[in-house]
Fold this protein.
Amino acid sequence: MAMYKSFCFILFVTASAEFVWKHHNNEELPQVLEEVNKKCPNITRVYTLSETSVRNVPLYVIEFSDNPGFHQPYKPEVKYVGNIHGNEVLGRELLLGLANYLCDKYNERDHHIRSLIHNTRIHLLPSMNPDGWQLSMDVGHQDYLIGRYNNHSVDLNRNFPDLDAITFEFERQGISHNNHLLKDITRLAAPLEPETRAVMRWIMSVPFVLSAAMHGGDLVANYPYDESRSGAPVSEYSASPDDDTFRELAATYANAHADMSSQNRAGCRAGQDEGGAYNFGKQGGVTNGAAWYSLKGGMQDFNYLATNAFEITLELGCQKFTPEKDLEKEWIRNKDALLAFIWKAHSGVKGIVSDDSGFIENAIISVVNITGPVPRPIRHDVTTGVYGDYYRLLTPGRYEVTASHPGYLPVSRIVTVPQHQTTARILNFNLEPTRSWFDDYSTFSHYLRAGQPRIYKRDLYRQLTGALLDRSGR
Ligand SMILES: *[C@@H]1O[C@H](CO)[C@@H](O)[C@H](O)[C@H]1NC(C)=O
Ligand SMILES: *[C@@H]1O[C@H](CO)[C@@H](O)[C@H](O)[C@H]1NC(C)=O
Ligand SMILES: *[C@@H]1O[C@H](CO)[C@@H](O)[C@H](O)[C@H]1NC(C)=O
Ligand SMILES: [Zn+2]
């Protein structure tokens, strides 16, 4: 009898930990993440964003890293955001499934997944709009719109500060300034919703390099800009300075998906003559945002124009509310694409900018494309983080990369970015002060006040590079 009892107990424990493909409600969602964290305590951390949804549901994130909770130099950070529109539910379940898969494969010592987790910090936010999800569930998820918005009836993917307007205005004035534009904003079109604020804080505080937001209602990988320059509502291609790189990022997802890029598949709203009735398969499963339809205040363009992150938008299927019976099938159709896209954080170049006393934070990395006969500057700079580290996603080709910072002589280096990278080319820079540090102190003291150049002490620098070298043997 006693034996029978303990047998039952073991069965029960195993059953509760087993991941099931279903629509996980707002209580079950964190339980799945906790289960994964229990199975993989050394490589995961579950945390919540700074604010809850309107109806007080926490916004849960699970992080994968070999040092959870910490940014590590040379390791790019990636995020996936699901369920920003509450009634578009597939991304939410795919991210729960992905969390479970990464953990299981890591524990099975899968070489590919171990290498990914040892070299990348991955954050998954399965639901940005748990209130909309709940409403959509409550009404039986029939309606095409109910549950899309948050509980204040606001579309969260229209609620981000419109930085496109700023960059387009700079373009008209001939000013070449296309990054970290949040400080140039003078007013908000609408108050920020708590979900938006929480995600903005997150985006601004973690040095993300690559990101995708998940939607439903079509099958296409959509890339910046989402907003047209002229204000045209549809069909105006709105290229960003990184158009080539974005097209490659989007194509990576589409090509690794079971049929996003398939020429022969039917379009989602075939036969309807509304504006959205494209057959994206015919164009490789990718689209520029504004070439489809223009929107203001989206999260994708905000990432690119406010931070160093490159974000695309994934429309995961014709149906917004995927039936439960199709979830596992959809996982199989998306699994390779989800992983291939994360690997793209390892394309282009990365490195550390330092001077003789340590790292230089907020150094500017600018790039000129010298692949063709005419050098073409890519007018979107990235900046270095707290360890002086930067990550510059690029397509294969030849580039002149320049590191600069007020008070230092800029340094340029030529680099060739090869095809099929699984690790970015490393390009470190050592900058020399224009004058000695003490001479500069008064000239550049306003930067110091703004908290700008944070020069780290040499021993901290040594300690960290030493720690990195120790780890590279793994
Ligand atoms: C976590 O790391 C510790 C120390 O390295 C190790 O002993 C333990 O087996 C690891 N646990 C798992 C679940 O991998
Ligand atoms: C807000 O949430 C409540 C409780 O779930 C629901 O009854 C109400 O319809 C929601 N309102 C909106 C605008 O979503
Ligand atoms: C640089 O130019 C080459 C040749 O035109 C092109 O193939 C490549 O995509 C460009 N790179 C970027 C990042 O724009
Ligand atoms: Zn959507």
About this structure: Residues 22 and 221 are 24 Å apart (CA to CA). The chain has two domains: 21-346, 349-471.
